[in-house]
Amino acid sequence: MDSVKIIEIKKSVFADNEQDANSLRQELKEKGVFLLNLMSSPGSGKTTTLIQLINRLKDRLRIAVMEADIDSDVDAVKIREATGIPSIQLHTGGMCHLDAEMTRQGLDNVELEQLDLVILENVGNLVCPAEFDTGAVCNAMILSVPEGSDKPLKYPLMFSVCDMVVINKMDVLPYFDFNLQKCKENIHLRNPKAQVIPICAKSGEGTEVLAAWLLEQVKHWKQQ
Amino acid sequence: MDSVKIIEIKKSVFADNEQDANSLRQELKEKGVFLLNLMSSPGSGKTTTLIQLINRLKDRLRIAVMEADIDSDVDAVKIREATGIPSIQLHTGGMCHLDAEMTRQGLDNVELEQLDLVILENVGNLVCPAEFDTGAVCNAMILSVPEGSDKPLKYPLMFSVCDMVVINKMDVLPYFDFNLQKCKENIHLRNPKAQVIPICAKSGEGTEVLAAWLLEQVKHWKQQ
Questions:
Q1: Number of structural domains, chain A?
Q2: Range of the structural domain that residue B113 is part of
Q3: Does A125 touch chain B (CB under 8 A)?
Q4: Would you say residue B147 has pLDDT above 90?
Q5: Hey, are the CB atoms on B69 and A126 less than 8 Å from each other?
Q6: So what's the ipTM on this one?
Q7: Residue A150 DSSP label
Q8: What is the CATH number of the domain that holds A31?
Q9: Is residue B78 in some structural domain?
Q10: Is B70 in contact with A123 (Cβ distance < 8 A)?
Q11: DSSP 3-state of A149
Q12: Which residues of B touch A49 (CB under 8 A)?
């Protein structure tokens, strides 16, 4: 198969990321493209979740994915093979997050006019990506059961900037000391408005609820 | 019980971290204190592993722990309660890593003259801490089974700076697509000299091998 497009992301020169992120959001609004920023730790299941989500939505929305990674391209290839949608790889060259200008460098390489939804899979890191507004309309994150239900207390900023917290790997709940109720309480301590959806990305269980939520977000935003 | 000592870490002013890290290593050498820098993603089991390790070594080495965290102090309290050794909490105030000067701010708060080994539990992040030399004699990391055996390919710098890679949560191996042999190969692609020890921190299995390795490192370094 053809290799995916790989974009080497350059360090941003903009001093004011917040302003730049707002400009990017405005541009995307004008083009009618919803940008979802998906964050998590390494190995929490971002790519597997995306594949489930995209396969449930690709007949109703025109979707593209930007996979940010330090230097590999396995995720973009995997997404394209499993879903058939356009997928590009953003190489951050060791950088631990994406800001709005770096996100824009990726968006310059997708056909925005032909899309409803772009999903950015951010670098696997619960700390730094939370600090930088990418220009996304919506932030979502995945916490997986093996990581522990105390993580909202230890990484508060990440949980406070996310509108959606997906709890993944629910299939292994019996083997871990993970308290779902306590986890929800910990999330809501940081962010009372956050929605929480438990899923198992491997089997697909619960991803229909996540897909319905995302479809609703996109539709609602387009009508605003 | 008494609360643990909490140190609010300030941003470093040193321009040359590499030089500063070398100075710190030299100072520690003169004092005969071995500094171990332990890194991993959130939820891989750093604190549980440390408790096992310390309880196996505390009769043979004088140990203290510095727990770096964005803003909680649960880990330092847990370590002290479970092991009885001195443990302090370093608050990074949102910063995603520790460099040598930040590590020094922590070390200024432990009784170095009365110690053989200080263990720094770095911020839970596979990206940023790998980029900053803390002044430690030895870098170790934990990768847990649920995170996946492909992580050495996706976070190459972290694996290349670590002398020891601990594979934790071996008890849940049957429930995950984790290939231990492949994982070792991926680690050695990045770092042919890295040692790999599989453990289950929860039950303690394998931690006697890890304790023996660390004891040997400390003894060897003291004799150099």
A1: 1
A2: 5-9+17-144+206-223
A3: yes
A4: yes
A5: no
A6: 0.88
A7: T
A8: 3.40.50.300
A9: yes
A10: no
A11: coil
A12: none
